[in-house]
Write a structure and sequence with these properties.
It comes from Cariama cristata (Red-legged seriema). By secondary structure, the chain is mainly α. The chain folds into two domains: 138 residues, no CATH class; 224 residues. Helices cover 85% and strands 0% of the residues. The protein is built from nine helices and no strands. Helix 7 packs across helix 8 and helix 8 packs antiparallel against helix 9. The longest helix is centred in the middle third of the chain and has 119 residues. It starts with a helix and ends in a 27-residue tail after the last helix.
């Protein structure tokens, strides 16, 4: 009962482990009433005391699992304890003891497995918590870096906006001064009109002329107002054009920087390729020297073969002469040894020739690949220089247009936005040779 009470009942991981413990109690609970009758009615031998305790333990387990049924069964047993005879045997008691020991072992195994699973789940939870902390720290660092970048961008945009606002304020001041001058002229004209009205009686024809002049001046004022509105609209369009041209200039500069970086990388790669080509040429020269040495060796071997052939012919003649002599076997052995030596030298000569041919063909193929790569790199560098010149000319044209827009704000002539294409002749581009 202590082992059963030590198991947790609220966890989901151990709920499936307690189910097998309920069903095996059935055969033990069937003998609960008999054990209780033995405890209340009779005292048997001392050897049956352990079995009686085991049966009472099984009865107690049945009470834990089914408390209502256990109390009812206990009341029924009290009434029938005197009437029921003793019907247990020692074999059944021993079987029950063995089953009880098996159940206790199973309980201990279940408890140990539950503790192991609990430890593993705790370790997994701690590992997951540590990973979450690391990910949170990484996200914090990323957010801080992004905030710094956005703050720098906002500061730059604020500076640009402050400059633009200052320029617009200056232009607004100029327009206000012009408007004040026009208002002053209008006031002067109104005073003149009043004086002309006073002199209307005496100067009727002059009054008509002055009225005509006033109409002209009013028309001029309306024209000036219209021109002021047009100048304001032109100013707005020019500011938008300036902003778009500035954005294009920034893009062009970024592209030029990227092209410069690419050209630098290509120049570095060209230098490395040139160094590798020099190394390969040195290796090729070394291999050529080795091949020349091998050729000399082959010539020497051929000379030795010729000498050996002459010696072999001499030995054959001696062999023919010595067949009649008493020692023909020794001469035949020497001739066979010389023939084997000649065959071996021929095989070595053939192997050296094959090796030399393979090495020369490999170096020729490698040299051809290096030449092809060199031509590709030079062609790509020419294309990059052509695009770089095109971007440089386009940048100069944009700067000229910005200067014209900044200097010719008072003029009314339209500015032609001619951006030339990539019309640089291919022959004018000079690529760096390796």
């Amino acid at each position: 009962r202590n082992s059963m009470s030590s198991l947790p009942t609220h966890s989901t991981s151990s709920s499936y482990q307690l189910d097998p413990l309920v069903t095996p109690m059935g055969p033990i609970s069937r003998f609960g009433g008999s054990a209780h009758n033995i405890l209340q009615c009779a005292i048997i031998q001392d050897s049956n005391m352990m079995s009686l305790k085991a049966m009472s333990f099984s009865d107690g387990g049945n009470k834990i699992l089914n408390p209502g049924k256990a109390s009812h069964h206990h009341a029924a047993e009290k009434t029938t304890c005197i009437r029921s005879p003793i019907s247990t045997d020692e074999s059944t008691i021993q079987e029950l003891e063995q089953k009880l020991l098996e159940r206790e072992g199973e309980l201990q195994e279940l408890q140990s497995s539950f503790e192991e699973k609990e430890v593993s789940s705790c370790q997994a939870y701690e590992e997951k918590q540590r990973r979450c902390k690391e990910e949170l720290e990484g996200l914090k660092q990323k957010c801080n870096s992004k905030l710094k970048q956005t703050s720098q961008k906002t500061q730059r945009t604020q500076q640009v906006l402050h400059l633009q606002v200052f320029q617009l304020q200056q232009e607004k001041k100029q327009l206000r001064e012009e408007l004040e001058n026009l208002m002053k002229e209008q006031n002067l004209l109104e005073t003149k009109l009043r004086s002309y009205e006073k002199e209307k009686t005496s100067f009727a024809p002059a009054l008509e002329e002055t009225q005509w002049e006033v109409c002209q001046k009013s028309g001029e004022i309306s024209l000036l107002k219209q021109q002021l509105k047009e100048s304001q609209t032109e100013l707005n369009t020019k500011t938008t054009e300036i902003l778009s041209l500035k954005a294009q200039l920034k893009e062009v500069r970024l592209k030029m920087e990227g092209l410069e970086m690419k050209t630098q990388d290509l120049e570095g790669s060209l230098r490395t390729k040139a160094m590798e080509l020099e190394v390969c040429e040195n290796e090729l020269q070394r291999k050529k020297n080795e091949s020349e040495l091998l050729r000399e060796k082959v010539n020497l071997l051929e000379q030795e073969i010729v000498d050996l052939r002459t010696e072999l012919a001499i030995l054959k003649e001696q062999l023919n002469e010595a067949r009649e002599v008493a020692r023909p076997c020794a001469v035949v052995d020497d001739a066979q040894a010389l023939q084997g030596e000649v065959e071996r030298l021929r095989a070595e000569l053939k192997a050296e020739r094959d090796n030399n041919e393979q090495m020369t063909s490999g170096f020729q193929h490698e040299r051809q690949t290096w030449r092809e790569e060199k031509e590709k790199v030079i062609h790509y560098q020419k294309q990059l220089q052509q695009s770089y010149l095109h971007m440089y000319k386009r940048n100069q044209n944009l700067e000229k247009m910005l200067q014209q827009l900044a200097a010719g704000e008072d003029g009314k002539e339209p500015i032609e936005l001619d951006i030339p294409g990539a019309d640089v002749p291919y022959e004018d581009i000079i690529a760096t040779e390796i």
